[in-house]
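chain below, 263 aa
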Amino acid sequence: MAPAINWRNWAGRASSLAMRDSRSVAVMGMDGPPVLPVCDNRSVNGEKGAIFARNELFSGLSADDLEQLAARARACDYREGEVLFYEGDACLGVHLITAGAVKIVKTTPSGRQLVLATQPAPATVAEVPVFDGGPYPATVIATEASRAYLIPRNDFLGFCKLRPELALRFLEVFGGRLRQLVFLMERITFGNVRQRLAQRLLDFAQAAGSKAFTMEETHEEMAAHLGTVREVVTRNLGRFQGEGLIRLNRRGIELLDRSEERR
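prediction:
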């Protein structure tokens, strides 16, 4: 018999864990020297530095520092579904997402994806391999039309030596992302799909500030976040509705208390 779910209990547990940055790092593999992607390498100006300042990691830098850092960066535009880089690829540098959003995924040999995190702009990805010199640990894919600035690895490391406070800010980001990955491992390792799905629905409700919310993910996309397949998500949503835990209507979902349902 499936364990009972109480949304209030789930909310209490989630509140102690939700203050985690849901962002992470990225991925892919190739031999030989890194090859920079074809990017827009137009001249740098104050406006470009201002774009960098919108990211909290760079917001404390002076205008001169921002322009010097931005001068080393190349702007790249990506279509929805386009890969920024693959797991195992040689690391080219730090990617600063200034428009759009990306997802960070691991792919099994069978082709199934697990979404480690989604990152809307402004955000950075691929900091870890910049510091440890290894390949990208995951694949990063644009989830909508996006723009990213690539700061070459050597330029970024050199700048961190001149401005150690920048490296300290990145350490704070590492800590937050490590916590988020541990939280994700906890969910997948110790929770079954039913529990992970319940937590996902609660996350959506908390983000919307309401028990009734519009589903922004398809069942397949949700499955990728939960480490399962679409059919399992669809089946469990149907069970939740049959148990009076949720109400489904097209792309909308409402979380219900059984006591409310009996009224």
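Confidence is low (pLDDT under 50) at residues 10-36, 41-45. The domain at 191-261 is CATH 1.10.10.10 (Arc Repressor Mutant, subunit A).
thats it, cya
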